[in-house]
Amino acid sequence: MKKLLNTLFVTQPNVYLSLDGDNVVLLKEQEKLGRLPLHNLESVISFGYTGASPALMGYCADRNISLVFLTMNGRFLARVIGESKGNVVLRKTQYQISEDEITASKIARNFIAGKIYNNKWIIERMTRDYPLRVDVSMFKEISQQLSTIIDETRVCEDLDSLRGWEGQAAVNYNKIFDQMILQQKEDFYFYSRSRRPPLDYVNAMLSLSYTLLANDVTSALEAVGLDAYVGFLHRDRPGRASLALDVMEELRGVYADKFVLSLINRKIVNKDDFLKKENGAVIMTDEARKKFLSAWQNKKQEKITHPFLGEKISWGLVPHAQALLLARYLRKDLDEYPPFLWK
């Protein structure tokens, strides 16, 4: 199993990244802000537009260190990657399956079934842990509806129908997401998903967490030799890591949503951590983003037992485990792709 290394988050605006030996150097207006060894890093994520030196980009590409650029509010801009080191036979199999919608649907339905299953058990845990603070009857009713949709997705062989079932499950889940916010209710609420731009505090954090998770899944897929840009459920679109979006579906709720809820319910963030712009967009302050990213790194270090492998691994290695299992399935070492099923 891959060793989980550190991620360097550069959150200050107007910071230029350069290379000095085997170190990344952070410069702002020619002033050196910091210098860190690259051998301890698996990725560098920079918020802002200033950029990085060609030497640093080449160094990272050669050593498979992910170098990612986001806007200040966390929207993906670009990712630096080196030459493809993927297994040719594995990728040819991936491309062939992607072109065959019936075969692709047999993998895609496991991504969606895993997502809905995990969301169902998020709901069930809320009724168990907070029976006096949520509408238990409503939660149980939606949990049962999700169970029915899981049964439908498990036998679905049509991608459009599969997307329809996934959409129906998302509507049901979103109906009660606001009830899972147990603290700071006057400031933190969820009515619907808003993306570009996020229009409230919860959506601002969800967008950033999904961006970070997508980057982790993309890196994991490339590490096992798969093409992160050719998916089975999400179809090809220039610049979109479609396979990464496929694999992260089963992790959205149990990894990203629960993380955001914990920041609110444990009062790690509050209303003062956000700014509203003239166009209605909500962004996090620099200090809030630092708190968010620190907590995200701590989350990745937490240990769990992987439900299929039976091994104790950190949350940060779950995307790598799923990428490995998908590669094994495509090589016909497994009869079926096993989604990550949390309970």
UniProtKB/TrEMBL annotation:
EC numbers for this chain = 3.1.-.-
CDD domains from the UniProt entry? Cas1_I-C
Q: Name one GO biological process term.
A: maintenance of CRISPR repeat elements
Q: What would be one Pfam family of this protein? A: Cas_Cas1
| Molecular function terms from GO | DNA binding; DNA endonuclease activity; hydrolase activity; metal ion binding
The cofactors required by this protein are: Mg(2+); Mn(2+)
Q: Where does Mn(2+) bind?
A: 166, 234, 249
**Record's keyword terms, sorted:** Antiviral defense, DNA-binding, Endonuclease, Hydrolase, Magnesium, Manganese, Metal-binding, Nuclease
Task: List the Gene3D superfamilies.
Answer: CRISPR-associated endonuclease Cas1, C-terminal domain, CRISPR-associated endonuclease Cas1, N-terminal domain
Give the stretches traversing the membrane: none
UniProt superkingdom: Bacteria
Record carries keyword Aminoacyl-tRNA synthetase: no
Assembly notes: Homodimer, forms a heterotetramer with a Cas2 homodimer.
Q: Which PANTHER family match?
A: CRISPR-ASSOCIATED ENDONUCLEASE CAS1 1 (PTHR34353)
Spell out the family assignment given in the record's similarity comment.
Belongs to the CRISPR-associated endonuclease Cas1 family.
Role according to the record? CRISPR (clustered regularly interspaced short palindromic repeat), is an adaptive immune system that provides protection against mobile genetic elements (viruses, transposable elements and conjugative plasmids). CRISPR clusters contain spacers, sequences complementary to antecedent mobile elements, and target invading nucleic acids. CRISPR clusters are transcribed and processed into CRISPR RNA (crRNA). Acts as a dsDNA endonuclease. Involved in the integration of spacer DNA into the CRISPR cassette.
Protein name stated in the entry = CRISPR-associated endonuclease Cas1
**What is the protein's species of origin?**
Natribacillus halophilus
Per the UniProt record, the lineage of the source organism begins with: Bacteria, Bacillati, Bacillota, Bacilli, Bacillales
